[in-house]
Amino acid sequence: AVLPERLQRREAERQQGVERQRQKKEAQVVKEEQSEFFLAAFAREREAVESLLATGALEEAAARLQALQKLLTDSVRFLAPYEVRQGQEAVARLQGDLAARRQQLQPKKKFAFRSLKRLRRCRVRLRGNPNTLRVRDCRGCTLLCGPVSTSVLVDGCSDCLLALACQQLRTHRTRGCRFYVQVTSRAVIEACSEVSFAPYSWSYPGIEGDFESSGLDRDSNNWNLVDDFDWLATDKPSPNWSVIPEQERITCWD
Predict the structure, then answer these.
(1) What residue stretch is flagged as signal peptide (predicted)?
(2) CA gap 119, 165 in Å, rounded
(3) Residue 200's CATH number
């Protein structure tokens, strides 16, 4: 009587193992199918945006580009890290192309710090709706900026406080900075350390009109979704960035 019971138990364990393997294989197949569907859909949408940019249909191109970013954001959970990075780079390139075409067809004001040789421990308030923004080599500065229509690049900065609203935020070679952001895509950091993020909270009279003219969606804010190009592990968070605790966030900027 003992032998059949033992055999039955072993058979049940074997069947459970077979079922686990089957489920694992099915999950892998689903993941591969999802990845293939994403790549095909992403390629179609990218080509559509490129065609619209070439013909000058900028508003439609901007809307399709936002949809392309949403497709990428919604698909991150089943994509390989290199697929996420390639997608982000493609979106960044298209956003740059869109900004360039807007300048060609409808020139807008642009702000950059390149004309200043030294920008140390300054406080800059930039109201209005710049097209693009580049911040380089700042030390101990505070920058409060109105909504930027396309992209913001922060490069080589340290110990700064920045309030930024934009489609895309790219940060290079930066450390010890705090970012208060409204960003419609996922922020990207590279060669950065000790940077932290919180939702955009700066305000001034007329900011709602600037948001409207910028084309940014106030209801879309991925302030806490950050892609670290130096940290590709998916099972552990990047040690290079963090979220600013609520009790430590700035609420009054005057």
Answers:
(1) none
(2) 21
(3) 2.160.20.70
